[in-house]
Design brief:
single chain; 329 residues; 13 helices; 67% helix; disordered N terminus
Length: 329
Amino acid sequence: MAPIVSGYLGLSGTPATVADTVAYAIAISILIMAFDYFFGWVERKTIAKIHKRHGPTYAGKYGILQNLADFVKLLSKENTVPKTADKLVFLITIPLMLSISIFLIFLLPFSPTLLETNIGLGLLVVFVLLSFMPLIIFANGFGSGNKFAAISAQRSVIMLLSYELPIIFVIAAVGALANGYNIAGIVNAQSKWWFIVLMPVGFVVFFIAMLAELERTPFDIREADSELIAGWLTDVSAPYYTLALFLDYTRMFLGSLLIAIIFLGGWSGPLLPPVVWLLLKAFIVSFFIMIIRATMVRMRIDRLLRFGWIWLLPLSLLNLILTYVVFIA
């Protein structure tokens, strides 16, 4: 079959065919669904264990089928749209966010030979598309016609914009070290030393800012249940809440992959296949994110913004300056 795009490489390093691309898309889709399901269960069990509770227990061995039972139950309910909502905006925002997240995972190479997308500015493309998330959340909150959802959307936008600036400065330092923003090039540049060793301050800033980008604890101010009921998800019905849960874990998978690729050497490692190394590192990062959720409390909005502007932004600038002085100059 004829090559589909010159930027895609198949298993043998030759241009990928349509069949290669379709098979890759199916494999990644299955991987995303498996991650969302399994880590949804792992998080519930982990938090329950830390909090001295049982968690999922009865549906299947160790409650492994509880998520499936919840999934079937939620999808069986009626999907409703509030009368005061903008119907088109209300119905399209969550599927759009989920689609962008899945597409970004498709853009990430999982190994140097497994049908990688060879985009010269790949890392910048990923974060440019991620920057659209606050706008979509804002549209959803105000499109729902609910004051709690609108307040939640404003909070999310303010927080995400505040924490995207530190991410940009850290990415600039990463590009300087890797001599470019090609994702495969960034992984190859860590053949001797992972970037977490070369720029530990940048890693800490990026990890914290990524938690905010994913709106995970302690940055989950969008769903401050003691203040805003369920935030910008207050008016969504059961089927759309299921999509929101898939979105949450898909974004966590994406964030974990980015951290593993940028700072933990990506797919590099001995003995095991490259794909296994990348997934193993991403799973460890995801598990650590879950531990943070189980052991920390939600930050107050004013303290959260102050932390981003007063601490993370200067630290990201310091990391950029140190990177240029130590490794570039």
